[in-house]
Design goal:
Strand content: 15-25%
Distance between the termini: 101 Å
Protein name: DUF2149 domain-containing protein
Pfam family, one: DUF2149
Keywords: Membrane, Transmembrane, Transmembrane helix
InterPro entries: DUF2149
Order of helices and strands: HEEEEEH
Number of helices: 2
């Protein structure tokens, strides 16, 4: 009957049970952190996240429903694809006025009218 007299501190199964408890707490903490992430795929919210704002390596992550798009800056200010559509003026009262440019004539090549000269 010496088996029953053994000390519980020497029993290796007790430390294994304690390790299982520690791992369960860690898993629960990770699941809570995952659920609170704004880019969680299981939420239907629309979220926009800006990483490194104003720096050359800036990233914008847009989540609409379950679709996630990632846009990365190329480091150049004012660069991008598109055409100049007009000019905006800020008035003295703080409002803005947008003045569209006239449309391109059909006989002039694209790009020359929009500031290419």
């Amino acid at each position: 009957m010496r088996f029953l007299d053994e000390d519980e501190e020497l029993n290796p199964i007790v430390s294994a049970v304690n390790l299982v408890d520690v791992f369960l707490v860690i898993i629960a903490a990770l699941l809570i952190a995952l659920a609170q992430n704004p880019l969680n795929a299981f939420t239907e919210d629309d979220v926009t996240v800006v990483k490194n704002a104003g720096k050359p390596n800036m990233e914008v992550i847009v989540k609409k429903g379950k679709e996630i798009k990632k846009y990365q800056a190329n480091g150049e200010i004012g660069s991008g694809e598109g055409l100049r559509a007009g000019v905006a003026y800020k008035m003295a009262d703080g409002s803005f006025v947008y003045v569209p440019e006239k449309s391109e004539p059909e006989n002039e090549p694209a790009g020359e009218q929009a500031g290419g000269k």
